[in-house]
Specification:
The chain is mainly beta. The chain contains 6 helices and 42 strands.
Length: about 650
Amino acid sequence: MKRKSNLLATLGLLLVATSLSALTPDEWRNRQPFEIDRAGPIKFALPAPALDTAQADLRDLRIIDAGGKETPYLLLQQPTAVAGRKFPARKFRAELSDDATTVLIETGTTQPLELVELETSARSFIKPVLVEFSDDGETWHRFDNHVPIFRQDEAAKTAILLAQSSTAYIRLTISDEQSRPIAITGASLQSASTHPEPAEPLAIRIVRTEEFTGETVVTLDLGAAHLSLASLDISADDPLFARNVSITTRELRDGQFSERPLARGTIYRIDLDASNTANDPHVLVNTNIPTRELLVHIENGDSPALQIRGIQARFNPIFVVVAPMAPGRFEILTGNNQSSSPRYDLAALGNQLGQLPVATVRIGESTTNSSYRQADPLAGLALEGAVLDTSAWAHQRAVNTTKPGVQQIELDLDALANARADLADLRLIQAGKQLPYLIEHTGLCRDMLYTPVELPDPKRPSVSRWKFPIPNPGTPVSKLIISSPTKLFDRSLRVYEVLQNQVGETYEHTLASKPWLRTLSEKPQPLTIALTDRLQTKSLWIETDNGDNPPLKLDRLQAFVPVIRLICKTDGGDPIDLVYGNSAASAPRYDLSLVSNALLNSSRSPATLGSVQTVTPSSNLLQGAHSGVIFWAVLTLVVVLLLIIVAKLLPKPGSK
């Protein structure tokens, strides 16, 4: 009680000494009212709309009272989780019995432990684990049972959480009753992580779910930008599954949109035995999200897409402390990119004010300030660039839009194949002028699926060879996934094209080569081969030398091309065309990048490309014709001059 009285007295002195003038609210775009029913210090969570409309560092956040006078405040941001230190176990021993593998670990520390992670090269397994602790290595007590460890395709969980326990010894009994034993070759420990206060539920919205080759992408609207996102829980109706999940956000880098990874985890529902199922939909994020849009990538591999029932989110709120002299109505002001961070004397009492309990405050809806007149960044965006003569471009496509606003145009195979490799010749044209755009490299892929047909080489009977048609020369195939029904083999595969040199002779251009080993003890896995060169022909070849072994069989090939989009804004007026196919064009430079964040956070409408119109570039035609005329004219002039010179050198008739 005495400590609270001292705090109130100190606050009173600070507030009396602080003289703040009235603000000019029309310099702030947004305002959100709230009411306080008592005088003195009060701590409450900053509402999400205020975070969304404020600058990322909250420097423009202001609080005013009913008279428009600025009110001092203190922000209390929860620290993000910090992972503990990883270190090897002091001693490790694995013992194999009839129906279990026992792992004995001496921790060598008295620190609280976050987890123990097992090391194994086994590629496909699901095991339940009994976890026990001991202080002397003799007397053991159970900590947990039926803890899953597994590796299924690319998804894996080999770490066991220890709930910040302190123990000298750990015994892990890995059941081998349902499946063959796996070799455990080592173990590492991680000291306890620092965790913020329990996160709060966050209302989010699934904007769309898109299916790509081997991957599901769920776009989320978090409801606000600049949130400290703690975790996501992904609920699926599928009875059994294991999937890797990555969390990303879009950002502008070097004038192009790309995705920045934020977090990665594994979700699963697996059967440990006949009576126990393990389920974990939790993905830790623990990072600040700069935009209100979040992308969730669920890696399906060759498995069917999950039936997503819902996604729940939790975030770490930012608390604000105010100490009004009297109860009343106040307002939060945000949305002034010209303001600097305020400096209040309340910061000196940060430690004491941070101990205040969280209070419930009646907060109204955030509204746009009616007296704020600055235009929206995209509303003032110039929708046209310089005039462009498209006669030097070889391909033209109509862009089909459904409504005005921000458009998302995915480049198809023809555009990817016939544009320059760096996409510098892409142009959007509207009424004879360029329409500014940004390029988004999504990190996603579309695939082309083939059933291999073998074409033997009579000159090399030990070689298996396959030929695959490609829609267009120049297609940017980024990787291949090759499947084989053969159960046991050791081969090296070569991927190549057959090209012609300047004199018309054919030769083989190797694109990639990679060894492929399959044994009976492992689950069959396809071979993934990355390609870096753009294809120059419409045929892709794969071959392998079987030696004295039976021929290798292939039953499926997947060729992947990247998903690349153009992002622009239209007014719904004149038609829009995409042109490409000009090797002499340089990359355009638009002022659109100055409002990239606003463009990124805007709702997009998918636009499609119409049929291809191939034209003969007039500039090249005229240049070729002009150069041909000059060549023949010069050649004719040279011949005439030579004839005149020869005629003068010859003796005249009748001369001796």
